[in-house]
Amino acid sequence: MVARDRAIAAAGAVVLRGTGRRRAVAMIRQERYGGEWTLPKGTLEAKEPAPVAAVREVLEETGLTIRLGHPLDRISYESPRGPKVVDWWVGHVLDQAPRTADDEVDEVAFVPVTEARRRLSHEAHRHLLDQALTAPATTPLLVVRHAKAMSRVDWARADGDGEEATRPLTTHGRRQAQRLARLLSAYGVLDLSSSPWRRCVATLTPYARHLGTPVITIDELTETRTAADPQATRIAIARLREQASRSGRPAAVCIHRPTIPDVLTALDLPWRHFGTTHCAVIHLGSDGTVEASEPLRHG
């Protein structure tokens, strides 16, 4: 047998509901694996981001529509097809539909936590359950660099004036924006903010149309305002941070590459590279504390 060059990528979620003694976790029973009970997960599709795959797999295996919360540990193990790496998150239930038994899943149930520990076959899954139970309640704030835009030179030729504020996305950038919508949905984003410049607003527009909600523009997030008054940009981001943490409503903000250092400073994060439509997912506690962060490549 030929060895695989890279591990199989997969994703899943520990989906909890209830409080105290009534706390339970979503589990599936698979007869083809000897009737074992396990947590919902599955393999990524081609070019699918892990968070999107986690939400999709939970829906397919349980009928639960979820949004992702606090990230959990990455688990690695040997499968019959080779090494596998699984990314995990806490999952929050948004909706539930009946799930008919099939060749993949024989039964879906919310199992009380103490019983779930006994039923789970793998020690790694028991560890994930314990980790999810102790993870802080958080609200995600996604910081997104805008999608691929027309070059400044090409826009000047096409537009005459070549105003930076109106420089549009390329065809590839519009495709990136469409794909980005799936990622925003995976985290249940409800509130959208952006620099008012065209390429930033256009990056969030496909998801805004899906939600039926406007993109709120903030002048302090433009390249020129940041260059002139970086403190104003930091204050604007700090306000978004406070708003998301206090309301508990997942949010996203679209920014320009030159503004990234000041945006990350306002979020108490170190510098990192952002390609087009790359994101940083900031998981905020109710007091605005950054409990976790995820750098995501997307596009």
Describe the protein in words:
The model has no long low-confidence stretch (mean pLDDT 93). The protein is built from nine helices and 14 strands. It is 34% helix and 29% strand. The strands form two sheets. Strands 1, 2, 3, 4, 5, 6, 7 and 8 form an eight-stranded mixed β-sheet that branches. α8 packs across α9. The longest helix is centred in the last third of the chain and has 18 residues. It has two domains: 127 residues, Alpha-Beta Complex (Nucleoside Triphosphate Pyrophosphohydrolase), CATH 3.90.79; 158 residues, Phosphoglycerate mutase-like (Rossmann fold, 3-Layer(aba) Sandwich), CATH 3.40.50. It is α/β, with parallel strands linked by helices and 299 residues long. A hairpin with a 6-residue loop joins β1 and β2.
**Biggest pleated sheet:** 8 strands, mixed
Q: What's the number of extended β-strand segments? A: 14
Query: Helix count?
Result: 9
Could you name the CATH class of the largest domain?
Alpha Beta
Integer average pLDDT? 93
User: Can you name the CATH architecture of the largest domain?
Assistant: 3-Layer(aba) Sandwich
SSE series: EEEEHEEEEHHEHHEHEHHEHEE
Structural class: alpha/beta
Low-pLDDT runs of 5+ residues are: none
**How many discrete structural domains?**
2
* Overall helicity: 25-40%
CATH superfamily of the largest domain: Phosphoglycerate mutase-like
Sum up the overall morphology in one term: elongated
- What Rg, in angstroms, do the CA atoms define? 21 Å
Distance between the termini: 34 Å
CATH topology heading of the largest domain: Rossmann fold
The proportion of strand residues reads: 25-35%
